């Protein structure tokens, strides 16, 4: 039986979509020890994996310890997290006597842990792959037509990275390599046809396994009985960018008091009462069962997170993307390039631009037709099964070739 270590950051979009892969691997005979924070313990254990916790420096999980008391090594959160997490896990991981390590591309500490333990490593990409021809930083920078550095790192960050490598006696690497490093096997959870310049990635090292669309979800207390019989407008900003209510106010102003129903997921950080009395056509709720809603959605409005985009495409739904950070900007541009949706700049979104975008998507049938074509591609892939097969085949080859 092959034993794997799995290293994940404490982020919903990085943990939950991977659980189907972990479960599939275990069902095929693998043994997995999964490192993450306590809030994901139950979900991880349900896959059959052994859960091992760590504490984090990341602000979203500040309730787990007093962030103010931590002595940060640098101004970069990725480097800080590595300094903080590695001492907690090195001996725990060593005791597992694993054969291979899988790490999320947001886990610098996972990459370093593999080198410390001298284990072969696999990257599970939560976003876009990169090679000599493509990286998503340059992709959106060129399309924005602005002259900004691809990577910005202060001297203290570079020095702290040198110190990190010296501490664990590993080969030093430049800060930029955090974002561009690859392993002999790199798994990408989107179709090659959706990935920009997908044809430039070699088929041996880069495996486009497709998205791990969830088979079920928790409906919670969402009022499904209030959904209209006609397809709805569905708006969400994901699980991270939900601190400010301003964008939701725009959604209400643009699409409230209309004939088409509007469903808004506001997350857990905003009190619904701040919006006052709602128009009759609006359902505004902290938690919305996204998979269920997308089966009943006319147009999806989101921040352009890849998980949500893939779930929308799996249902043939055209989109409006209002991106917040780099990989979301790249996704929004890609949606627009493939005529699957429209990108709106969050700094200049207005009621008028929202209504105009919706009008374009409804009047031009090419958007829905393209989304339905991509739907067939997404549905032909089985992310969990294909990823598990690639990982297990690769790990088997390592022992055969020894």
TrEMBL record:
Organism domain of life: Bacteria
An annotated Gene Ontology molecular function: UDP-glycosyltransferase activity
Pfam families, per database record: UDPGT
Annotated InterPro entries: UDP-glycosyltransferase, UDP_glucos_trans, UDPGT_MGT-like
Keyword Ribonucleoprotein: no
Keywords recorded for this protein, A-Z: Glycosyltransferase, Transferase
Similarity comment: family membership: Belongs to the UDP-glycosyltransferase family.
Protein name, as recorded: Putative UDP-glucosyltransferase YjiC
């Amino acid at each position: 039986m092959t034993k794997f270590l799995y290293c994940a950051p404490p982020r919903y979009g990085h943990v939950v979509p991977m659980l189907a892969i972990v479960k599939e691997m275990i069902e095929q005979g693998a043994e997995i020890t999964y490192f993450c924070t306590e809030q994901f313990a139950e979900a991880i254990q349900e896959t059959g994996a052994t859960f091992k916790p760590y504490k984090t420096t990341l602000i979203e999980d500040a309730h787990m310890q007093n962030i103010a008391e931590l002595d940060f090594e640098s101004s970069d959160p990725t480097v800080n997290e590595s300094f903080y997490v590695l001492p907690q896990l090195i001996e725990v991981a060593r005791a597992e006597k694993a054969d291979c390590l899988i790490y999320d591309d947001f886990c610098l500490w996972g990459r370093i842990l593999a080198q410390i333990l001298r284990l072969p490593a696999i990257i599970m990409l939560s976003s876009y792959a990169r090679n000599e021809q493509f990286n998503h930083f340059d992709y959106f920078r060129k399309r924005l037509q602005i002259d900004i550095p691809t990577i910005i790192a202060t001297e203290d960050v570079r020095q702290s990275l040198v110190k990190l490598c010296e501490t664990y006696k590993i080969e030093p690497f430049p800060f930029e390599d955090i974002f561009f490093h690859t392993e002999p096997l790199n798994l990408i959870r989107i179709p090659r046809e959706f990935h920009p310049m997908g044809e430039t990635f070699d088929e041996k090292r880069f495996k486009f396994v497709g998205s791990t669309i969830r088979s079920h979800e928790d409906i919670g207390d969402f009022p499904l009985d209030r959904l209209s019989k006609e397809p709805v407008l569905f708006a969400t900003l994901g699980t991270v960018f939900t601190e400010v209510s301003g964008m939701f106010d725009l959604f209400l102003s643009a699409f409230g008091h209309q004939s088409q129903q509007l469903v808004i997921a506001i997350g857990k950080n905003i009190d619904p009462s701040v919006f006052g009395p709602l128009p009759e056509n609006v359902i505004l709720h902290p938690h919305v069962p996204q998979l269920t809603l997308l089966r009943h959605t006319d147009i999806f409005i989101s921040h352009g997170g890849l998980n949500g985009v893939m779930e929308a495409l799996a249902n043939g739904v055209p989109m409006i993307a209002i991106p917040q950070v780099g990989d979301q900007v790249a996704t929004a541009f890609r949606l627009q390039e493939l005529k699957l949706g429209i990108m709106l700049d969050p700094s200049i979104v207005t009621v008028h631009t929202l209504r105009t975008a919706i009008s374009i998507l409804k009047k031009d049938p090419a958007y829905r037709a393209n989304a339905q074509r991509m739907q067939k591609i997404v549905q032909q892939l089985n992310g969990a099964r294909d990823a598990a097969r690639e990982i297990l085949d690769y790990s088997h080859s390592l022992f055969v070739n020894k």
